[in-house]
Each structure stands twice: as C-alpha cells, then as structure tokens.
Amino acid sequence: MEEPPAKKAKAADPVSENIDNLIENIKNSPNNLHAILNLEIHDSIPTEKVYVGHIKNSKDLSITILTLNEIIPLKQLQHLKRVRKKDVLLCPTSYLTNNSSIQEFLEANVPSLRHVFEYFKEIEVPALPPKLKRQHFEFNKVWSCNFHPNEYLEKMAVDNFFNEAELKNHRMYMAIAFDVAKFYLEKTNNVNLISSLNLTNVTVIVDPSISSIVDIAFDNRENHPLQHSTMLAIDNVAKTQNGGAWNVDNKNGIDNKLWGIDKELLDDLQQKHDVCIGARQVRGKNESCDDGGPYLCTGYYVYTIREPCIMCSMALVHARAKRVFFCFENTSFGALKCKTQLQNVPFLNHRFEVFTGFL
C-alpha cells in the first residue's frame, strides 16, 4: 500500500537535516585545518649505512677532509657534515664491493689516509635532509646535519596555520559548497541526499584578493564524462576572462561575473552567507600583471566537497590555483592525499597548497 504524500515528504526531512548538521559542524568547528604536506615531513626519514673513521690525531682533520671531499665526495649525502668531533664520515657502505673492508677501500682509493684512523665503525645516518626543527633535533643525535629552518613550513606542519578570521572564511566557503550540493540534489528530487554526496562534488572558486566567489560548479558527469565540478568551474572562470570551451548559459545575468549558476541558488547564497560574488575585470595584453592575474585561477582558492581526482588536480595545476581545500577524502581516485600527492611532485612547473580537516 502506498504511503500518504505527507509521510513521504516527512521521511526526507531528517536526511536534509543531516546535511544542515554537516554545514553547522563545518562552520563551527574549533579545529584548525590540516595541510597535506610531503610524506617526508611526517613519516620517518629513511636511513643509509655509512662508514665512519675515528681519527688518531686532531691535527690531521683538515687535510683528511680536503682529501676525502676531492676523492670520495658524499654526493647524495651533502646534507651531512663530514666531521663530528674526531669521527669522520668516510662513505656509504654501498661504495664497497667484493666484500672488501673499509681499510682496504681506503688503501686502494686514498692511500695517503691509510694510517690516519684509529678504528672504523658502521652507523646509520639520515638519507635525506631534515625539513623541520624536530627532525633536525633527532638527526643531530645520530650525526650532525646542515639545516636551514623554514618558519612557514613549521607553521603548516603543526596544524596552526590560519588565524581565527581566516578559518572563519575558509569554513564559510566550504559550507557554501555543501549548500550548493543540497540545492541541486533537492532540485533533482534525490531523496537520499547524504548518500548522494559520495557520488557527486561541488567546486567553489574564490579570489582572496577581493574576498569574492569567482565561480561555483556542480557535477555534470551524468551528461558529460569530463564535466566534473572542478573542470566546469575552471572553464567557467575562463569565461570570466573571455575564454572557456564548454557552452554553458550564463543563467544569473550579471554580465560575465559568475557563469552557469542557477539564479535562485545565487540569491539564496548571497542572502544566507552575505558573500561577495564576481571576478576581477580582465586586463588587456599590454596592462601590468604584477599581482599575478588573472590567468585562469592564478592566486585563487579552490574549495571542493570531495578530494579532486587526478584529472581535476592536474587541471588545477595548469590553472595555477594557489590553494585547494577539500572536506571528504576520495579513497578511490583522490590525487591530493589518498592515491597520490600531486601537489608534492617536484618536477611540476606549478604547485599549490592543500588543506583539509573541516570535520
């Protein structure tokens, strides 16, 4: 027997309220955001076995170091100091072949040093340079390291990067992404809104220099396999700069300011969140670009409900996004944390910062 219409409508309310609860939790969480940094920052640093020689006479240290640096340079271990008191770092154990001893190795390669050392020992040293002060402190217990502190990185690593006002703004823009998802899912009569959040995404792009939303996009993968929300948002940003590839109607009628967004949604967001909406005016080719834009998403912040996939993440690299924020991990295809960390690939010509931890 079919349920009365009133009961059907009532059954969907708790699900909708669950999204509202998520939004409130995102906006009111006291926690700072977490930066997704290179694994070297948080994981234990790999070690390498090396030979160390204890020198007999301290007066021989200078000539010993000069000779070793010339004949047996450390190459991949240049972050390590060559001397620690009377101990001298000779070479990685991998340099030795045919089961020869370190004494035989020195006699064959640096005969002038064959009588300089009292004894030898084998130790493990950090194979990579320290990135943080705490790593440097631990490394120095084993062997002396060269280290140049990076206060910006230190701040990111302890999850205390944003001040209260900045956090409020980041959480507001992420809450807007969830409001957008709720709007479109309700519009398509998708009763189980919470489950649908696992199958869709919303992207909000913000120009922090003017505290304004440049574009918002909702997934359109059901109709076009490439139109993930991030791809659509980047293309719509291009439209604000007289570019763009996909034919998306400008439904809000505010003259090239925000493309492809439902006018009803736009009015609701402005009323609910009191946000500024619109992109900077595009400059001509001969005008100064000293402030870094606007070329696509140069200097922009990008907020997504779910961690972007590899395609979307590479698009953000090419679009020159400055920071990317996401709420939920994408365990199947996430390219910023779960499957890989694209933002930490060293040979890319652009890298952005990534933050999560909204819930």
Automatic annotation (TrEMBL):
The keyword tRNA processing applies. Residues 221-355 form the CMP/dCMP-type deaminase domain. It holds the Pfam family dCMP_cyt_deam_1. GO terms for molecular function: tRNA-specific adenosine-34 deaminase activity. Keywords: tRNA processing. GO terms for cellular component: cytoplasm; nucleus. GO terms for biological process: tRNA processing. This is Probable inactive tRNA-specific adenosine deaminase-like protein 3. PANTHER family: CYTOSINE DEAMINASE FAMILY MEMBER (PTHR11079), INACTIVE TRNA-SPECIFIC ADENOSINE DEAMINASE-LIKE PROTEIN 3-RELATED (PTHR11079:SF156). Belongs to the cytidine and deoxycytidylate deaminase family. ADAT3 subfamily. InterPro entries: CMP_dCMP_dom (IPR002125), Cytidine_deaminase-like (IPR016193).
